């Protein structure tokens, strides 16, 4: 199955997939609005603002699997992230990103781009996956890697 065909829901519960982002460079991030890494929303937004016109899609997938740091859902989650972090890039419906209940998108991402020591589990919020214009996952970044440290990788993919 292609990454573009994996179904998921929008923040409003509508069925969708990554098909609308085919041909774009994607930065896929599991987010949580109450996480200590939530200030990274600002850096992700800056990447979105600087490179969306060049073909970058920053895509947020909220998850509540880490210390219950995403209690919000749907419109309230989106509104909170807009007001508190200036987010205008897409945030989708909450999903599980690890364990037996991991969403198929995250099962795919972690299979093709394992983390440190080859571990497939997502360890915390704000793990980032960079996907090229052909749907190939090219790099995984840990939660501690700030969005601005990913910018050079994004620029290279946008230029290729």
Your description of this structure?
β3, α1 and β4 form a beta-alpha-beta unit. The protein has 160 residues and is an alpha+beta fold. It starts with 7 loop residues before the first strand and ends with a helix. The chain contains four helices and six strands, in the order βββαβααββα. The protein has helices at residues 40-51, 74-85, 104-112, 151-159; strands at 8-9, 15-16, 25-31, 56-62, 128-131, 137-141. A four-stranded mixed β-sheet has the order 4-3-5-6, with helices on one face. Strands 1-2 form a two-stranded antiparallel ribbon. It has one domain: Glutaredoxin (3-Layer(aba) Sandwich), CATH 3.40.30.10. The longest helix is centred in the first third of the chain and has 12 residues, at 40-51. It comes from Cohnella soli. One of its GO terms (molecular function) is peroxidase activity. Belongs to the glutathione peroxidase family. Pfam families: GSHPx (PF00255). InterPro entries: Glutathione_peroxidase, GPX_AS, GPX_CS, Thioredoxin-like_sf.
């Amino acid at each position: 199955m292609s990454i573009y065909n994996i179904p998921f829901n929008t923040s409003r519960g509508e069925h969708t997939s990554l098909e609308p982002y085919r041909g774009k460079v994607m930065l896929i991030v599991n987010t949580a609005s109450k996480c200590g890494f939530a200030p990274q929303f600002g850096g992700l937004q800056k990447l979105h603002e600087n490179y969306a016109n060049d073909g970058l899609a920053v895509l947020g997938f909220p998850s509540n699997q880490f210390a219950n740091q995403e209690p919000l859902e749907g419109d309230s989650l989106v509104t909170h992230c807009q007001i508190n972090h200036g987010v205008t890039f897409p945030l989708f419906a909450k999903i599980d990103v690890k364990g037996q209940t991991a969403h198929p998108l995250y099962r795919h991402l972690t299979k093709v781009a394992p983390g440190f020591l080859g571990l497939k589990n997502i360890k915390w919020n704000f793990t980032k996956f960079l996907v090229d214009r052909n749907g190939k996952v090219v790099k995984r970044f840990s939660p501690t890697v700030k969005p601005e440290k990913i910018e050079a990788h994004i620029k290279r993919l946008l230029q290729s």
